[in-house]
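New here. Your pick:
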Amino acid sequence: MTKKLNKDQIKNLLPHREPMLLIDELINIVDLKSATAIVNVKKDSFFVQGHFPGQPVMPGVLIVEAFGQAAAALTAEGIDKETYENKLVYLMSVEKARFRNPVIPDCQLLLNIEAVRSHGRVWKYKGEAKVDGQKMAEAMWSATIVDRK
C-alpha cells in the first residue's frame, strides 16, 4: 500500500491556507524521494476570475508554487518531526521551468516530483506536471528549511 496524505494532513505540515494551499492530496509517497501531488483546478479557483476572463488558464507561476508546496510536504512528511518542528520550507531558486501546454479548468493536475539531492538544509527537486497523461510543465527548483520566526 502506498502512502498518501489528504488535505487536512497536508495542512498539518505546511503553513499555507486557502486560497494559497494549492495541493489537494499527496499520493504515491516514497519517503524523502518522490510523490505525486493532486491539484484540482476548478472553474471557481481564485486565479481564474482574472487570468484570463473568458479563457481561463492556471498561471505558470502557480504551477511552480504547487511544485514547491508538494516538495515541502514530501520533505516535512519524511524527516524527523522534531527536526521539522518550528521550521518552514522556503523556495530558493527555480531552474529550467518549461510550460508546454496551458492548464485549463476543470481538470486534475498531477505533479510528479522527485527529490534530486539534499545537502544540510538545502534540497533540490525536479517535477513534471501532467493532465490526462499530457505534459503541461516541468521544472527544477531548490528550497531550504529555515527556523520559523
